[in-house]
Amino acid sequence: MKKKKNVTFTKKSPQKKIEVKRRYKKKDFIEQFASIKIKNNKNSGADIRKFTVKKLVRSEKALSDMLESIKVCKLPDELIIEALQELKLREMEVSAIIDCARSVLQYHDFDGVARSIFDSCKKLIRAQSGYISILSKDGLNNEVVFLDSGGLPCNVDPSLPMPIRGLRAEAYRKMKAVYDNSFSESEWMQYMPDGHVIMKNVLFAPMVIDGKAIGLLGLSNKCGDFDEHDARIASAFAKLSAIALTQKRVEEALRDSEERYRSLVELSPDAIAVHAEGKYIYINTSGLKLFGATKPDEIIGKPVLELVHPYYSDIVNERIHKSYVNRIQMPLRELKILRLDGKSVHVEAMSTPITYMGKTATQLILRDISDRKKLEEELNRYTKRLETMVEKRTEELNKSYMEFEAFFNYSITPLVFLDKNFNFIRVNEAYAIACQREISDFHGRNHFELYPDKENEAIFRRVVETKIPYQAIAKPFSFPDHPERGMTYWDWTLTPILNKHNEVAFLVFSLNDVTKRKEAEIALLKSEEKYRSLIEHAADGIVVLDNWLNILLVNPVFCELSGYSMEELLGMNIKNLIPFDDLISRPLPIERLLSGESVRGERKIFRKDGSIVDLEVSAKMFEEGNIQIIVRDVTEKKEAEFRNKLITGLLELFAKKQSRKEYLDSVVQFIHSWCDCRCVGIRIIDKRDIFYEAYIGFTPEFIRLEKRLSLDKDVCACVRAFTGQFESQDKLFVTPNGSFRINNSKEFVSSLKEKELTRFRGNCIRAGFLSIALVPIRHRNKTIGLIHLADERAGILLGNVIEFLEIMSSVIGEAIFRFDTEEALRESKARLSEAQRIAHIGNWGWDIKTNEMYWSDEMYQIFGVVSNQFELTYDRFLEFVHPDDRESLQKAVQKAFFEKEPYIFDHRIVLPDRKERIVHEQGEVIFDNNGKPVRMVGTVQDITDIKRIENELRQSETQLRQLSLQLMNGQEEERRRISRELHDELGQALSLIKLRIRYISKNLREDQKTLNEECEDIRQYIDQVLENVRRLSRDLSPSILEDIGLSAVLRWMLNNFKRNNKNINIIHDIMDLDNLFSQGEQINIYRIIQESITNIEKHAKANNISVVIKRFQDSVTFIVEDDGQGYDINELFGNKLFEKGLGLRSLKERVWMLRGDLDICSNVGKGTKITINIPLTKRDLK
């Protein structure tokens, strides 16, 4: 590249300075233009008249550079034009990238987003074909998401793996875009599979996330060459694809996580329930068992306090309030609950505030501790008994020791025996649990080896030396092996036990964990400081009044609610903020506050701007006479309650109405009365049309014009609102949730251009509607309908109305889906009954617990009974089974019970008219979670006619075998006759001719040498003919079969083939077959092997042949294999080649007559393998 020159241009009046950075390649013109700095932009390049060169170089090369710079400066207009074109191109690129980024943000499915990104990239770069692929888990292959050949021929299956090699491997290794503009001539072409689209040039951009390439965006066949700019653009789109793929994987991981959590909750041994507003809304299986319920409906909806022992009602109520209102997690607490049968159960309860299905709720975990309570009571009894017996009966030491052992082992108080050197002698389970170790971890080890503490060690030594017990209160201790427990606090006592010599025999170490108590004390000390900051940092508004109701203290939240500053509120009387009418109708409850009562309620107050705010108020008087008021803005809550009321009305309509049409008519009336809009209609999708199924207020003429719209043919805002494909003129009037709303259609129409007007049918505007709204009805993100609102008044469709309709639309969509599903279910049930009638198949179910059975209509037809005249039980069913088959059927059913596998059984049934039918029965046992059988389901098919046809087919097959065998025997007899005639007649005639020629040759004169040579040639030719006649005679009728046997004949045939075909290598492994088959069967086997070898010789073009014959216990297997050109099996058996070319039909018929199996395995270019398996069972053919 040439060295850049700095050139300064000047003009007579104000001096201009222009710095030119010259580039000679066309793609850098925009950089040339950007490097020109014009101090005053009033003059164009045409005004430049003079320039001076700051640095001259005398060489010819420098002068050439200077002249080139002058040419550039003379053409600034062209540069500006090119710069503008380049700017427009960059704008298009940025717009395309932003659109694709928006698709990623509005992600629905990865395939659709990837396709959108690829199409945008391909269009910008002007490539013709390409694909997007994902790196496989093993990192060896590309898995194609989609392949776009751009209309070029391509026979490669996109679902096949695409190995990481060639230029693709370069892109993965370098993790940046690579391209090759001579790809069709490059070394990479060797990796392209046959049938792949022809690629002149290629570009691969890796999708990189966290420094790792996870896929490729590939482009090919650009008109022109790929360049670095294309690589940057493709890399940008590849990054968007990587983000979309990451989002897809995150969503899949999230779904897996949700499913695992749901399984953990259901399988938890503890009872887990969720309650909101004081009522249960969810409970798991363990919870049902704890409350003595059998199904969730028995618990869900019940008040929490109804299932709590009365003694604990206040405690539970307070915990619910703290968890639900204050959003505080409540620690473990022992309680008593009431089962449905009225019995009480001791439980440990812990509650945590959560959000369940979009609602504020509390998760409750209950653990049954009834057994533990019984054990504690039992231990207490043992303790008292032990103390009494020690005092009164020292002689019963052994018995007392046993009771002490029980106390030691089962005490909830941690106890330890140490020797005087502080080695562990014994610990109880409570101590091991407190230390989070196994009991076996302590024996023989030193206490301070496990828990080093110099201060405690000194105390222990002092107790041993002084023999005086030591008691510690709330002493802090940190477990070195469990740092996560933090600082714990313990009350503990160390007591020396003396022997008869008044020496310390051992030490008794008892402990009590008081961490919670200590933490409560610490928390109490901090509570005063927390309360001081409560007012300033509280989420609710807090006001403190004096006894004259003047404001003494107020926090920032209340200032924000009222719109006043803190200075303005201090000293103001609270009554000044309350509307006068409200004060008259509901005076302030001063007397109740004076009596010490906490008062709750709702009030309205004026804001500084005059607007009114709804507040939830809680007031209480302090001892010093001040009144504390806590307020919360409930304006949104009021609106939510109103909306919930409307949604409840919709749900009630769904519960009451029987059909979709009846429901939608009621919904239209409901919306009409609620939003005060004159015209309301609901369109429903029908294939590719949307039509009014319910409406009110629209004229018949309007409905005639708008009754049914085509999503494919009609152009209107209704269609675009349904499909979500809005155009530029619509977007100012589209809500974030995809609804279309205008409140003055005249102003809207006046703002449209003539071309934009054609994008509307205009019937709503011609009907005089000024306010128009279209709200999509969706079910699971799929639009299935449209709510149409219209009114002649302007401005009546407010934003909150449309927002709420968008919420209601999901409820309506769910109801429509349910009605459609119920209708489809009814149709499906009718089709099932019809199908069962045609196929003579019925289905049944048996409730094992109640012994009740269900039969479909076809079951009654099969068994010849009428449903309303027949008591259906399992025993009655068994009465229909033929007595000879009944026991076998019962064994099959019992096997299904024990082995938990389905059963299949064909048996006879006896109808009421004593006729017998044959049925095919299938059944399966359904087990509950405990492995107990609860019901059976199955099908019964009447196969009487099928069995009859099968018997007839078997008889026909036997007759056909006999006819085929007779035909083959006739053919063999004919072959023997022709063989004899060839051998006897033609062979003798040729031998006589040979003798005559020899005689003639001997009688020729010496001068007839030429005739003598001719005679010799004729004699040799006759020898060849004789040999061919003998060979043909042997082939037609292998008489040597009777002489030397089948095995020897086959070996002779293969060896003879090898002599006649020197270029083919043949190997064989043939066992002795002579005594296994009859003479006729041996001829058939000989013909099979002969035909197989002949086919290889004629068609296979093979170099190697293998023949293997092996005997197994009950069969003989023949394998003939070659390495020839092979053929396509499907193509072979689908054309005339099967009938004419290879003689395979004859081969198949001979194997069939031997009751054998024929398997042909072949692939083009990979040879052929013929496997024949012939059974050695008794045959009925002679």
Structural account:
The protein has 1182 residues and is of the alpha+beta class. It is 44% helix and 24% strand. The chain has a 6-stranded antiparallel beta sheet with strand order 5-4-3-8-7-6, sandwiched between helices. The chain has a 6-stranded antiparallel beta sheet with strand order 26-25-24-29-28-27. A 5-stranded antiparallel beta sheet has the order 10-9-13-12-11, with helices on both faces. The longest helix has 59 residues, at 944-1002. The radius of gyration is 49 Å and the shape is extended. 22% of the residues are buried.
Q: What is the strand and helix layout of this fold?
A:
Blueprint: E1 7-10, H1 29-34, E2 50-53, H2 60-74, H3 76-105, H4 110-125, E3 129-135, E4 141-148, E5 162-163, H5 166-174, E6 178-180, E7 202-209, E8 212-220, H6 228-267, E9 271-276, E10 279-283, H7 285-291, H8 313-324, E11 330-338, E12 344-356, E13 359-368, H9 370-392, H10 397-410, E14 415-418, E15 424-427, H11 429-435, H12 447-450, H13 454-466, E16 470-478, E17 487-498, E18 504-513, H14 515-537, E19 541-545, E20 551-554, H15 556-562, H16 566-569, H17 580-585, H18 590-594, E21 599-606, E22 612-621, E23 627-633, H19 635-656, H20 660-675, E24 679-686, E25 689-696, H21 700-706, E26 708-710, H22 717-723, E27 740-742, H23 745-750, H24 754-757, H25 763-766, E28 771-779, E29 782-791, H26 799-839, E30 841-847, E31 852-855, H27 857-863, H28 874-880, H29 883-899, E32 903-910, E33 916-927, E34 933-942, H30 944-1002, H31 1009-1036, H32 1040-1044, H33 1046-1060, E35 1065-1070, H34 1079-1100, E36 1104-1111, E37 1115-1122, H35 1129-1133, H36 1144-1153, E38 1157-1162, E39 1168-1175
Parallel strand pairs: 35-36
Antiparallel strand pairs: 1-2, 3-4, 3-8, 4-5, 6-7, 7-8, 9-10, 9-13, 11-12, 12-13, 14-15, 14-18, 16-17, 17-18, 19-20, 19-23, 21-22, 22-23, 24-25, 24-29, 25-26, 27-28, 28-29, 30-31, 30-34, 32-33, 33-34, 36-37, 37-39, 38-39
